[in-house]
Design goal:
Elements lengths: L4 E6 L3 H12 L1 H8 L3 E7 L15 E2 L14 E4 L6 H12 L3 E4 L2 H17 L4 E2 L10 H8 L5 E7 L2 H13 L3 H10 L8 H4 L2 H15 L9 E2 L7 H10 L1 E14 L2 E14 L11 E8 L3 E8 L3 H16 L18 E2 L6 E2 L1 E8 L4 H12 L3 E9 L5 E8 L2 E2 H11 L5 E9 L4
Parallel strand pairs: 1-2, 1-4, 2-3, 4-5, 5-6, 8-10, 10-13
Antiparallel strand pairs: 7-9, 7-11, 9-10, 11-12, 14-18, 15-17, 15-19, 16-17
Helix pairs in contact: 1-11, 2-11, 3-4, 4-9, 6-7, 12-13
The protein binds NADP nicotinamide-adenine-dinucleotide phosphate.
Length: 435
């Protein structure tokens, strides 16, 4: 019998207990695929007394999870605690320093410290894997890093946050506003009590930064991701989008441009209008989906559950199987010293169409003021719709779709209108996703 792969599990919450359940349920199959048994030897969490619905009696309980990295009977540390810094990061560093493998589902930590951890992993020839950190159960990290490895990718984008997708697709289904659907998401367990990271797009930004690094062979650059959440999207925008043939989705996107051998990338998270015929338009509820476009593969679509106990545990155990098989491949597609520093593209150069919604006072001349700003900024309007008087006071909504053009013109138009007494709120600009 081959030597087992011995695992220390830090964090026994949703994902940690899921990993224990999966290894119990699929033990023989996992062993067959890994070529050797995968055994949990030690576990750690804050509260030893808590009933977690799984039997922990055969594992050593470790009060100070940092001690796991030092144990002689451990080959791999699985970090399922969370948090970009703090104890999760200390453990991750200690595990790699001790030459242990590291598996994590922690997108915040990978987005902020993935490069430094990959350097440490290379230094100690230790495996470092994080399939569960992006889109839960969807094997998109492996899909891009290995399945699509023969391709040059220039565009990776997708629905990377289930909470936002649930809220937006429920707003679409019910006609209700953001606040009501956020409450509903919290009641159904799709949103945290503090939903800030999700609804402000930070969680999706962590994930797109990771995917861009893998897909483009880039040094991860989370700080460069421009992030806009969904809090300003109104039910009226969704209705309007529908009549124009679109749905609204929060899209994380990374685009690579190559001008004369000089590569630049644009990484963004923004609510977008998605054409009804596009595969992302059909993605509803808490589901995630990622599209990657390769120069030989064409468009690839990865779709499935982006979170939850079972799907996320499935991704963690897939990483364990890889390590058990001896897979020591680089975490970000190429060896860490070959990762490129790719400069950020100027978003003003983005060529595309936009949906712009203005909330304005219902008085004569407002429309002329808006269209004059568009003209002066060089924005060409494809269609313009003025909604009837809104229920609260004299506010009306004016929505428009622009012709294809550089984004800098739209930004200039918005700047020209900045401070105008005609506007009751800052305009909302949503790019229209190219089909
Ligand atoms: N939940 C998902 O669907 C999902 C999906 C993808 C990725 N992830 C990522 O997976 C990771 C874990 O998420 P989760 O949902 O399983 O979290 P969770 O349910 O909150 O569990 C966190 C676990 O970490 C333990 N813990 C927290 N601070 C600790 C400390 N200082 N020392 C020791 N243990 C500590 C907690 O102990 P106690 O139980 O004793 O309090 C708990 O067992 C996070 O990075 C998350 O972003 C989660």
């Amino acid at each position: 019998m081959a030597e087992p792969l011995r695992v220390a599990l830090a964090g026994l919450g949703t994902v940690g207990t899921g990993v224990i359940r999966l290894l119990e349920t699929n033990r023989a199959m996992v062993e067959g695929r890994a070529g050797r048994p995968i055994e949990i030897v030690a576990v750690s969490a804050r509260d030893r007394a808590r009933d977690r619905g799984v039997d922990l009696s055969s594992y050593a309980w470790v009060d100070d999870m940092q001690a796991m990295a030092e144990r002689g009977d451990v080959n791999v540390v699985v970090e399922l605690v969370g948090g970009a810094d703090g104890p999760a990061l200390t453990l991750a560093r200690a595990a790699l320093d001790a030459g242990k493998g590291l598996i994590t589902a922690n997108k915040a930590m990978v987005a902020h410290h993935g490069l430094a951890l990959a350097e440490l992993a290379a230094l100690h020839s230790a495996p470092f894997k994080f399939e569960a950190a992006v889109a839960g159960g969807i094997p998109v990290v492996k899909g891009i890093r290995e399945g699509a490895a023969a391709n040059a990718l220039d565009r990776i984008y997708g629905i990377l946050n289930g909470t936002c997708n649930y809220i937006l697709s429920e707003m679409e289904r019910t006609g209700a506003d953001f606040d009501d659907m956020l409450r509903s998401a919290q009641e159904k367990g799709y949103a945290e009590a503090d939903p800030t990271f999700d609804v402000e797009g930070v969680d999706a930004a962590h994930k797109i930064a990771i995917l861009a690094a893998i897909g483009f062979g880039a040094r991860i650059d989370f700080e460069a991701v421009e992030t806009t959440g969904i809090g300003e999207v109104r039910a009226a925008d969704i209705t309007q989008a529908k009549t124009l043939g679109y749905v609204v989705r929060l899209v994380g996107a990374a685009h690579l441009e190559d001008v004369g051998g000089r590569r630049s990338m644009l990484q963004r998270v923004r609510p977008c209008l998605v054409p009804l015929g596009h595969p992302l338009a059909a993605v509803k509820g808490p589901t995630n989906a990622v599209v990657a476009e390769g120069n030989f593969s064409g468009r690839l679509l990865f779709q499935g559950a982006g979170a939850g106990e079972g799907p996320t545990a499935s991704a963690v155990v897939a990483d364990l199987i890889d390590i058990a098989r001896g897979d020591l491949g680089p975490p970000f597609s190429v060896s860490v010293d070959a990762l490129e520093t790719i400069m950020q593209a100027d978003p003003g150069e983005r060529q595309g169409r936009d949906y712009i919604r203005f909330s304005v006072n219902d008085r004569p001349g407002v429309l002329a003021e808006i269209t004059a700003a568009m003209r002066d900024a060089g924005v060409s309007i494809e269609s313009l719709i003025q909604h009837g008087r809104d229920h609260d006071g004299g506010e009306v909504l004016v929505a428009m779709v622009t012709h294809d053009g550089p984004e800098r013109c739209v930004t200039k138009a918005i700047d020209l209108l900045d401070g105008s007494p005609s506007l009751t709120a800052p305009p909302l600009v949503m790019p229209i996703l190219k089909d």
